[in-house]
Amino acid sequence: MNDVIASISSRSREEILKKVRAGYQDPAFCRKETEDPVVHIVMKEDLIENIKENMTNNKFVVHDVNEADLYNTINEITASHNAKSMVYPKDLGLDLEKITASSQLCFDRQIEDIRKLVFHTDFSIINAFAGVASHGAACVTSTENQPRMLSLVPPLCIILLKKERVVKSLSEALKKVKSEFDVLPTNVLFIAGPSRTADVELVTVFGVHGSTSVHLILY
């Protein structure tokens, strides 16, 4: 049976390669851009309204604010969750003195050195690289400056997203990553709200392998 499968696989591979070779030799051959699957998704013209609606459906708590209200919004969120200890990336770009927290831990060392501290923090604040309107997802790039663990470990994750970085589709988000990074990030995350599962008796449970509550601040 294995010989038969190997033979079929070999013939299929040769047929595919034969067509590829013939295509490159054909003077009329031209490359066609792959169509973005987003064309099959019904969307609103306003990307901001679109992403807000889809993120809300994905169980994000969405806050649409002016940049001047950013710190007040962060402090209101943490107060509502009684979250006091904070972990953040070293390129967060915020004035930490304006954020109310009993302790603030910068994730700027190896996880082995700060594992206990990270796993006992109440909330994290991270920057989204982009927002995907079609799916209501936050695109988060994992880098040395902003490790992936920041979006997974704390029970409360606050994601900051600038409105000008909202794109229409997953494809556009990936193109944006490729165009802005000389070396691709180790991970590109598409976060669609708090983690969840309904494996047990079809009862949805949140926070299975990530934050229980995810707030998205659009500003």
Distance between the termini: 60 Å
Question: Major sheet: order of its strands?
Answer: 1-12-7-4-2-3
Structural category is alpha/beta
Poorly predicted regions are none
Mean pLDDT comes to 92
Strand content: 15-25%
Give the helices and strands as they follow along the chain. HHEHEEHEEEEEHEEEE
- Choose one word for the global shape: elongated
Number of strands: 12
Summarize the amount of helix as a percent range: 25-40%
Tell me the Rg in angstroms.
22 Å
Largest sheet properties: 6 strands, parallel
Q: Looking at the chains present, what oligomeric state does this protein adopt?
A: single chain
Q: What is the overall number of helices?
A: 5
Commentary on this structure:
There is one protein chain. The chain has 219 residues and is α/β, with parallel strands linked by helices. 30% of the residues lie in helices and 23% in strands. The chain contains 5 helices and 12 strands. It has helices at 2-25, 47-57, 70-80, 111-118, 170-180, and strands at residues 61-64, 85-89, 103-107, 123-127, 130-132, 137-142, 156-161, 166-167, 187-191, 196-197, 205-206, 213-218. The strands form 3 sheets. Strands 1-12-7-4-2-3 form a 6-stranded parallel beta sheet, sandwiched between helices. Strands 8-5-6-9 form a 4-stranded mixed beta sheet. The longest helix has 24 residues, at 2-25.
